[in-house]
Amino acid sequence: MSTTVARGRTRRRERRERGALVLQVVALVAVLLLSVLLAIGLGPATVAPVDTARHLWAALTGGTIAADDVTEYQIIWQVRTPRVLLAVVVGAGLSVVGVAVQALVRNALADPFVLGVSSGASVGAVSVTVLGAFASLGVHALTFGAFVGALAASALVYLASFSRAGLTPLRLVLTGVALAYGFQAVMSVLVYLAPDGEATHAVLFWTLGGLGAASWGSLPVVAAVVAVGMAVLHRCARPLDVLALGDETAASLGVDTAAVRGWLFVVTSLMTGAMVAVSGAIGFVGLVMPHLVRILVGASHARVLVLAPLVGAVFMVWADLVARTLAAPRELPLGVVTALVGVPVFLALMRRRGYLFGVR
Amino acid sequence: MSTSNAKAPAALRLDRLRVEIDGHALLAGLSLDVAAGQVVGLVGPNGSGKSTALRCVYRALRPTTGTVRLDERDLGALPRRDAARRVAALTQENGSELDFTVREVVALGRAPHLRGNQALSRRERELCERAMADLDVTHLADRGVLTLSGGERQRVLAARALTQEPAVLLLDEPTNHLDLRHQIELLSLLRRTPTTVLVVLHDLNLAAAVCDRIGVLAGGRLVTAGPPERVLTAELVRDVFGVTATVVPHPLTGAPQLLYALSPSTPPGDA
């Protein structure tokens, strides 16, 4: 008798939980679409959401536009749309990578750049500026240089931290942090030797990050890498949960911790490399969005990996909007905005919910 | 009240296990048989290789030489997930990086049985509920594991191991952190389940109460193994642990019980 009651209760809770997640996803997708539409319309030249939608519709379906509207159309379609979409991609991607990297190195302070990827990208980009590498690639040389630098840094961290026990969390973090100092030193030398201020500018862009370089040319590549990476990581939700219980327990549950860490490292490095190459190292988002989402919906990766990208994307769209409009026509560095807006929100939530992480 | 029902218990055999790390032999040719359905205890001083032996069985460690056999099949030759479907472990890790709910942690016991993000079936959900009831943690189901006391968490992790529906259950000092009542309850649960159990215990009296057989380890080797009343003698305790003890039969069960005196010179007839 009591078993039947308990069974009914289990089933009801199951339905309620699944329903809640679907509802959260639907609501966030709606908010994201609305945010994108608004953000594309807002800027030095403000376009009403209805007109924005009309222009987007025309662009997507190949419709015609009145001659008067051409400038507006250009701004909407060539400048703002790729930028806002890049905000979506990078916001979602950094949040997901943050979740994965925190699980990979078992450290609450980890973010996508803790393994030296961003400083590697900076070295790559600055080398292009100073030494003229990859000149044959034209305008894409800088992006390509940053990507190569990011991957080279990842490979170096991987090799340097690899030991008989596989990739152990602490070795990874220590190696990443140590090598980041090395890369920064190399970068300083390059800047010091550079004949003009161009290198300094490149360094600034890659260390603070920004979406000003968004274009239809680079967007599909980043979007594809991030989307595939997100799908792969989402399939690893359960092993990620298991990893949080500790390596011994993970082994007893049939999870090959060394193999999972290796895969996580490769996937997160590729995703971070692709994002850093086009947007630099936008801080804060990848560190804090994972925590924010866990505060709101709990720690289970099956939920966090679905909701974190949506929350991150919405946050990034608005942060970029603030960055490009608040002091217009000048642009604030995006990393500054993400921190100024995000930190108070995060602190408030953390205090209210009694959030726990890694207490033993 | 029986928890495991799906899988028949398996016979476990440690066959000349040798583990060397940086030239140190943690295990120096350990052999031990655990018959199907038996509860076998591993006792021995610190560093005698008890945990190392368990780690070889739950695949956290690959023995330098020797094999672990499950019903005569080489466990090391199985894919990890397949092995984890047959062998569950309650390790000494008592923490979690993330604040999962108790119910979520218990459900992770199904991880080796599920592919990708496959959801738990109804039977598996009920299995979780039953394991939580058996370990007296149902009232904590929606609490975060990081808000629990060490003992409560230990019971949650034990429930997780039972949810794995193993043929062999390994426990490394399962009574750590547990209060007296829950120590007794956990050990009587081990007696009740049909699963084969290999358990590391420090408390020799609890080991005598719960185990069919006890294996005594020292220096990575098996000193002796057998039923508690044959193994737990004053002589052995002195030789292996360097402690003088008086052995008396339990007035109710007849199991050997050890009484200690703190001062080494006190016991009469000291050898």
UniProtKB/TrEMBL annotation, chain B:
SMART domains from the UniProt entry: AAA
A Gene Ontology molecular function term of the record: ATP hydrolysis activity
Domain of life: Bacteria
Domain ABC transporter, first and last residues per copy: 12-244
Gene3D superfamilies documented for this protein: P-loop containing nucleotide triphosphate hydrolases
Record keywords, A-Z: ATP-binding, Nucleotide-binding, Transport
InterPro entries reported for this sequence: AAA+_ATPase (IPR003593), ABC_transporter-like_ATP-bd (IPR003439), P-loop_NTPase (IPR027417)
Protein's name in the database: ABC transporter ATP-binding protein
Species the sequence originates in: Streptomyces radicis
